[in-house]
Write a structure and sequence with these properties.
The chain has 583 residues and is mainly alpha-helical. It has helices at residues 3-38, 41-62, 65-79, 82-108, 111-118, 125-130, 132-150, 155-180, 187-224, 235-279, 292-310, 318-360, 364-391, 393-400, 407-436, 442-462, 471-494, 501-529, 534-558, 564-568, 573-580.
Length: 583
């Protein structure tokens, strides 16, 4: 009986965090969609490259310590060591502040070096510098969030994340549009500053978030402070303990960020190499299946013509700007591709603790059921999203970018990334299952293997004039396919009573393939009758998506994909099971 209230408390906190995470992702999606329409492909490339390097510094600074802090605070609270708890927070906050200052200096003082030599795009310097205050504030936010989560209080985390998301959506978009409508000359500089303006909203949101979290921490401390006689450990002992917990988590999290950073700079550099060869008269390549060479050649010729008409004072660099254009189109598709992955984060927050509890009480049958449920629910989300993007890549990107992107170029990119998104989701859940079983090092190894393959494939394929930017999503798909297969193999070999993969993936895969075919056919039929304008085409796309969702929902119920055990892992799952008559 004593464990039930604790279980309810945990799932209540997890459900709250899941709800706020989904809300934040929805706000972020709303932010990215008009931003794709407002910013040019070149400016969007600067925007996303700056975000890539920002994410790397943020991961290195905050990936492991918040988890270590929340775990240690929870232990101190359980043992009644109030003085130790407060000392742990002070040490952790100082560590966060130090890493935040270092990251701030790297992105601000050395922003030009970061943009030129790490991102291979000197025109992204303003965007990189615009994010420097954000990484400092984010480190401080992580300390306050980790402390609150140690008390199973997810409200400060949720509210602060919503503050950040609303700020970047409202202020970031407003600043980007204000700069684009300004009289700043030349136009190329105005374009670069618009990307930086969009990111200033992120930094302002981080500042507002840390102010709220500091106020909330001081308020709750005055109310929560209790007398205690325990003697806290020394600062060195506390820091050593935190780092032992944090370093493996950080290594696991930052591997992909490092790979993405290397990949972003390398892809742009390889594109510039091909465009340089074109400028020097490379011809006779012929068309690839996706017909990329003629399109790339047209982009380069347009930039060469613009330079000839406007002169060197315009700031146009035909080779770099052509590469930024292709890379920007690819980055716009990445904003949509990341959505299924975002839905996995709150899902693992609800499921993995249940698996850990089964392992702790040596309930192997319960652990197997929980593992299978985790994978099946992830498949239920990832597979339809992936096949939907694959089937409707071009119409979706056209609709969401409001026509401000070359859909014939970006559509196939998004379709390839749709398949990649399936493997991304599978590897996230598989890695969490391995970590819950105490297998913490192998996911780092598998991600490193996949990352190396991604870099090699991107370097080879993007440098091929017949493939160019299409090599980037192909490398991403291959990377996560390898990581997923390796992680699933490790689970099969090392986890007691491993899940039955046929049971886990069979029915969701069948339903998703049928749904993808229905989405493609529905769009084809609707677009025949709704042709002639952007609005009508968007209506056809939205109609095809709604039809696909309805068909998928019917198939999930008809094929009995979900079990009662799946639903009972979620808050109010038993009531959902009763409504759907699942026994």
């Amino acid at each position: 009986m004593s464990s039930q209230p604790r279980k309810n408390t945990f799932y209540g906190a997890a459900a709250l965090l899941a709800a706020t995470t989904i809300l934040v992702k929805v706000i972020g999606f709303i932010y990215k969609v008009p931003l794709m329409a407002v910013l040019s492909d070149e400016a969007f490339a600067d925007f996303n490259q700056a975000y890539t390097i920002y994410s790397l510094f943020l991961t290195l600074s905050t990936a492991g310590l918040p988890v270590a802090l929340s775990k240690t605070v929870s232990e101190c609270k359980t043992l009644g060591r109030e003085n130790q708890k407060h000392q742990v927070f002070r040490v952790a906050f100082c560590a966060f502040l130090f890493m935040g200052i270092v990251s701030f200096l790297c992105l601000s003082v050395f922003g030009q070096f970061v943009a030129t030599y790490l991102l291979r795009n000197e025109k992204a310097v303003y965007a990189v510098m615009a994010l420097s205050p954000s990484v400092l504030c984010a480190c401080c936010c992580s300390a306050f969030r980790g402390y609150a989560q140690g008390h199973m209080n997810m409200v400060p985390t949720g509210i602060s994340q919503v503050i950040e998301a609303l700020s970047k959506m409202l202020l970031g978009l407003a600043l980007a549009m204000l700069i684009l409508r300004s009289s700043i000359e030349p136009a190329e500089l105005r374009d670069r500053l618009s990307a930086a303006g969009a990111l200033v909203g992120v930094s302002i949101g981080s500042i507002m978030s840390v102010v709220y979290l500091a106020w909330n921490h001081l308020r709750t401390q005055r109310r929560r402070r209790a007398r205690a006689n325990d003697r806290p450990d020394s600062d060195g002992e506390i820091l050593s303990h935190l780092l032992k917990l944090a370093i493996p988590i950080t290594l696991s999290s930052c591997t992909l960020s490092i790979v993405n950073t290397i990949d972003a700079g390398m892809v742009l550099e390889q594109l510039q190499t091909v465009f340089t060869a074109m400028e020097e008269g490379l011809t006779g390549i012929g068309n690839s299946v996706l017909d990329i060479f003629p399109k790339a050649e047209g982009i380069l010729q347009a930039n060469l013509t613009a330079l000839a008409q406007q002169g060197a004072a315009s700031g146009i660099d035909p080779v770099l700007d052509s590469a930024r254009s292709l890379h920007g189109a690819y980055q716009k598709t990445m904003s949509i591709y990341n959505l299924p992955f975002s839905l996995m984060v709150p899902l693992t927050a609800c499921i993995v603790p249940g698996l850990s509890a089964c392992i702790a009480r040596r309930d192997r049958i319960g652990a197997q059921r929980t593992t299978e449920s985790a994978m099946r629910i992830s498949a239920l989300i990832a597979l339809p999203c992936g096949f939907g993007l694959f089937a409707l890549g071009e119409p979706i990107i056209r609709m969401l970018s409001f026509g401000n992107v070359d859909a014939e170029l970006a559509g196939p990119l998004l379709s390839i990334l749709g398949i990649a998104s399936i493997f991304v989701c599978i590897q996230v859940v598989a890695s969490s299952i391995l970590q819950a079983n105490g297998i913490v090092n192998l996911p780092i190894v598998t991600m490193a293997i996949g990352g190396i393959v991604k870099i090699l494939m991107s370097y080879t394929l993007v440098g091929n004039p017949k493939i160019m930017i299409f090599g980037a999503p192909i490398g991403t798909t291959t990377c996560f396919a390898i990581v997923s297969i390796l992680n699933l193999g490790i689970i099969k070999r090392m986890v007691p009573r491993p899940p039955r993969y046929g049971v886990v993936f069979g029915k969701p895969l069948t339903a998703s393939v049928i749904m993808g075919g229905a989405a493609w056919a529905a769009h084809g039929l609707l677009s025949m009758g709704l042709k002639g304008s952007f609005l009508l085409d968007s209506i056809a796309t939205a109609g095809a998506i709604l039809i696909a969702v309805a068909i998928y929902a019917v198939l999930v119920v008809a094929l009995r994909v979900l079990s009662r055990e799946d639903l009972e892992l979620m808050p109010k799952g038993d009531k959902i099971a009763e409504i759907l008559h699942i026994h």
